[in-house]
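Support case: user asked for a sample of complex input and structure output to validate their parser. Sending the pair below.
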Amino acid sequence: MTVSTVVERGRFGGKGATRRGKASIPTAEAESSFVRRGLSLLGVGLYAGFFLLPIAFLISLTFKTRDEVLLGQFFTSKPTLENWWKAFEFINLTGFIGHSVLIASLSAVLTLALATPATYAVTRLQHGELVGSLVLSSYIAPPVVALLPLFFLMRWLGLLNSFAGMILVYGLMNVPVAYWLLRGFIAKIPAALDEAAWVDGAGFFKTFLVISLPLLVPGIVATGLISLILAYNEFLFASLFAQDDSVRGLTVAISLFQGDRFVNFGQMAVASIAGIVPVYLIALFFQNHLIGGLMSGSVK
Amino acid sequence: MSDRNPKRAVSGLNRRTLLAASATMAGAGMLQLSPLLRSGAFAGQELNLTIIQPHAVAGEVLKKLFQEQSGVALNFTVIPYDQVHAQATLDVQSGANHFDVHDYWYASIGALVDDKVVFDVTDWIERDKEKIRPDDFIPSIYDAYTLVNGRRWGLPYDGDSHVLFYNTEILHRHGLEAPTTWDAYYQAVKTITEKEKGNGIYGAALLGFKVPVIIVSSYANRLAGFGGRFLKDGRPDLLSEESIAAAEELVRVAPYALPTPSETAFDQALPAFLSGKIAFLEFWTDLGVRSQDPQNSKIVDKWDVTQLPVGGKNKTPVAALDAGFGWAISAGSKKKELAWEFVRWASSSEAGVKLLTTYNSGIDPTRSSTLNAPEYKSFAPKVQRAAAAAFGSALVWPTVPQAPKLLDTLTEQLSLILAGQSKPKAGLEAAQRAWERALV
Amino acid sequence: MELHLARPRGSGGDGSRVRAAWLMLLPVLLGLLVFAVYPSIYVVGLSFTKSTLGQPFKAWIGWSNYRWLLFGGDEIFVPSLLRAALFSFGVALVELWLGLWLALLLTSLQRAGRLVRSIMLLPLMTPPVLVGIAWKLLLAPGGGLVNGKLLSLGLVDTPVSFLGTQPWALLSVMVADAWQWTPFVAILGYAALRQVPDDIIEAALLDGANERAVFWKIQLPMTAPLLLAIFVLRLIMAFKTFDLLYILTFGGPGSSTDMAGFTIWRTALRNFDVGAAAAETVLFAGFVSVAILPFLWLHRRVERNAS
């Protein structure tokens, strides 16, 4: 099996999910597969409904006036657009969302830049297990108390209330998650490929860049998206390290809506829906790489 | 700018500047600035302050006025009300010293002093006594909010207390009067709920969400009514007759309250009251202003307010000082003199009246002069009446350094009591034990 | 193929390859050293002291914090740890099962699957505070959507208090968590399933195997390492759950939803007793490590077999 065949297969898979688990189905089973398909659709429909209900509810909230919020109905009798422009007026919502998007995406890039070579190295090294356990153990404890030394550290580094600081913190924070996810994807790439390259005299790092990385693209995209989402939705660190309006993000901004006694749910919902949009678009953009091409590396 | 000798700056003034400045001040109306500020000596400088979300509107007002009159820019960082303590502490602790002034919850003053987060202003108060008029502050508020170990550490500016709001229409329907005792309150709530539950109308909302400022307020309102106290000579007093009666009162009315007390916070109770679904609600006085706003309220002119009921042997209404905020100077501030100028100005009678009569400012009176100010009376007559009557005596929450921990353990036990997982006496015994251990 | 034990072969290249590997590892190790090892040492040190947020390392008290938490009558932390275990295993298993099922459904559908895939990530993308708010409003007794429907359908005569009574409170939090995180499992599970080579599955089907056999004998074993990794990650995340509790119940009613991650936050940033919070953190880390150990061992075994 040569490298080119592997890549070819990967590219073929990358064209979109045109192949399914079962290609040639004997005609005798055609009818039961029709029923099965119907049931599958029903199952998916139920899932979709379950997942969409709260989101749809949030969207309907954005059109409700304050007194309609707790009426036990889904639709409102007098829809209003007032929440939409009021939410943007109340606080600098576009600014805060922008900050969050910037911090989250750059931190995801940092996470990938750090974790991908590291995970690759660990899976190829003899004492990789130990490092793997160390990485995971850094993820286990709740970071609340660690906030104290980290606060000192950030201040000492001059990174409080700065984009660089948040990117650094989130970038490192998500490395354990990225490590564990990438490990599963890297495991699918046969060592034989690397070894072939090494025998040919290629360096370790070069092999990684030229051979393994292209095969890892789907895994990287999946991991990157997850890291981005985790950083985007983080609250605790943001509330302590990024309170300044110049770096404040969406999660902290939403907590401001929440912190008032007379909570305005409609505006909060607007902030949340508006906040989801950029991330959703990013995910949509990368979708094909995420799903379609994930079959690469499935080589025997 | 030297922190130590402000007089040096003033002496550099000339007559023309003073005249110009006083002209500005006269035009500005009621807000009185110190000569130092008026002189423009601090113009162009900035102060960094924390301010809680409920006070955001007040912050806007203060910012604009202060900028106009003294040329000083106020940079408010709005944060949720439960985060000021942590932010202030970390700010000083880490040496960041970004903030100059803090909007602090009075119950945390002991802890803030103990952790050396705020600055001792006793001498400055003494020096500026005539302008500040400390005797104008409502006595229970002044000491509770600022006095620790015989020294003073800030000035009050938001004197919160709970009063009992009620829906006149619902009460009228059942031929009920505003209750003066907790027992009458219970009977009224029970009657209304039993008769109108089917229509989704309940006698009261009992705020029991597991956060100190919510559930302990509900308990404190009753404790005050019964004449009890949190601490007696520095020792926990949770097993007194009054305390147990207060807890039992909570449990007694819970089944008839808006479902369910354990999950009821502001976000459910307020819409319920403002849309006429509950008859009684214990809340801060600014609810009165909101209830009269047709945009937010369906019960305009259909509500009234009275002091919290009494109970047991106690016959005189007592105000429960639930929440309540003051301004304090951060210990690490490099602009303490300017910060003091602000603190004095913002807690003055004139600033107070301005804020009290601004819609949605979230501010309540701290001084006798503001409490009885004619502007306040005409702006919110019903509320002013109830508030003015209440401040004779007041129940103060603990302000010792261990106060956060005390309130947290009390919250834990009250929540267990309210959820039926613990009997009132047993729960209070557990709280008492925890308090004794903490205060050792 | 023993991947993680693969050693670079070939003459003269050994040393430089190992060096290169360590170099690639270095940034992460450095980062962990500064941002993980240093705080960990600090926290462990802090756990042996009496400290407040404003005065860390106020006084050395040895094992006193630990004794109080484990034996001395604290009565809050240990139950919260056990509750967290119950919650975490519960939601992790449910999410694994539901997520895997959804992933399988998606592999057998094409166009509908694409649509579902795009909206599937929405719960995960919703800011956690809003997940809490949405569920709080949905479940509210006095006007929430769920109660509204239940009442109008005549299934109950009085509103059910989902968040204000046990055991509904804990269950509601679990449902909200499952809603938010099942897509996490599903999307990664889908990716894992698509990695299983089609020709193997086709061959098996042609040989007469039914779908069930295909799943249990081929798909599951081949995706087991990644699925286990996802499970372990979800388990750890669930132990640390905070946002949902902050909005939905704050640990109430009573103490029925008070879980370790939340308790530690309360001790540190509400009581400001960071010494006790540090001790709680150490105990938490120990407990969770022990809890995931069997799964890590299983993961290693399965990883070896899957290749």
